[in-house]
Amino acid sequence: MAVVVAFQPWTFLDSVVSVVLAFVLGTLIGAERQYRQRTAGLRTTVLVAVGAAAFVDLGMRLTGPDGAVRIIAYVVSGVGFLGAGTIMKEGTNVRGLNTAATLWCSAAVGAFAGADLAAEAVMVAVVVLAGNTLLRPLVNAINRAPIDERLTEATYEVRVTAGDDQVAALRDVLTDQLEAAHYPVSEVEVEERGPDESELVATLVSTAVEPAELDAVVAALERRTEVRHATWAARNSD
Questions:
Q1: What is the rounded distance in angstroms from the CA atom of residue 70 to the CA atom of residue 160?
Q2: Is the CB of residue 133 less than 8 Å from the CB of residue 215?
Q3: What is the pTM of this model?
Q4: What is the DSSP letter of 117?
Q5: Is the pLDDT of residue 5 over 60?
Q6: Which of 144, 143, 178 is nearest to 159 (CA)?
Q7: Residue 46 burial (CB < 10 Å; 0-12/13-18/19+)?
Q8: Are 112 and 121 in contact (CB under 8 A)?
Q9: Contact present, 149 and 211 (Cβ < 8 Å)
Q10: I need a surface site. Which of 14, 94, 125, 159 has the fewest CB within 10 A?
Q11: Cβ atoms 200, 167 nearer than 8 A
């Protein structure tokens, strides 16, 4: 009969309100994710929010705010592991970071609801929705903007392809020409490209360049008879 004795209508109603609020807010966040066909869609987002609310509410019921604080710490780490499962690496591209972050924020919404902080739960849900919708045009505009290599911070590489018997001598030539253009080299690696062909990859110390200067260095290298191909490229430092 402990179940009957422990049942308190008003306390139960409070739990119902917390869980339902988490369900509604999780639905709003998840609907946007589902519409965009993300890995974690409507149901996953709702379950994360409801689960976080239920666990935090349980901590509140059993030991008060101190218990809720301990539960929240475990919710944060647990949802972190769940979000990691949505992140996929395909070559040099990483997908799912935004979805994982949305799940993490959904857990925060549920935690606020479970802790009876309804206004804060609504506020966080609105901000999450704004981040996933209102910021999208700004992201697209930034991505479409031409890249100015002089203002970006990236890792720059100069690649020179030559025969295996020319690589050793060409390494010094490559380093000297780059340093003459005031672009010191941090390292030079050799990558095999074929049975008698290799590629020198010189990584620059500089994190910002003047494109015309590197173009001139590459053009000078390509004029050498032992060089089969020369180019330069930038890759994200992160």
A1: 57
A2: no
A3: 0.63
A4: -
A5: no
A6: 178
A7: buried
A8: yes
A9: yes
A10: 94
A11: yes
Both tokens of 71, joined, read 């539960």
State the amino acid at position 116 in one-letter form. D
Measured between alpha carbons, how far is 202 from 193 in angstroms, rounded to an integer?
A: 16
**What's CA 189's distance to the chain center, in Å?**
29
Backbone torsions φ then ψ of 229, nearest 5 degrees? -160, 145
Shortest CA distance to 165 belongs to which of 228, 230, 226, 229?
Answer: 226
What pLDDT, in 10s, does the model give residues 104-123? 999 999 999 999 999 999 99
Length of the chain, in residues: 238
| Dist. CA 96–CA 39, nearest whole Å | 7
pLDDT digits (tens, 9 = 90+) for 195-221: 888 899 999 887 778 888 899 999 999
| Residue 40, pLDDT above cutoff 80 | no
| Strand positions, DSSP E, 47-135 | 88-90, 93-95
| 67 vs 28, higher pLDDT | 28
- Pairing type for strands 93-95 and 227-236 reads unpaired
Provide CB contacts within 8 A for 29, sequence distance 6+.
45, 49, 102, 105, 106, 109, 125, 128, 129, 132
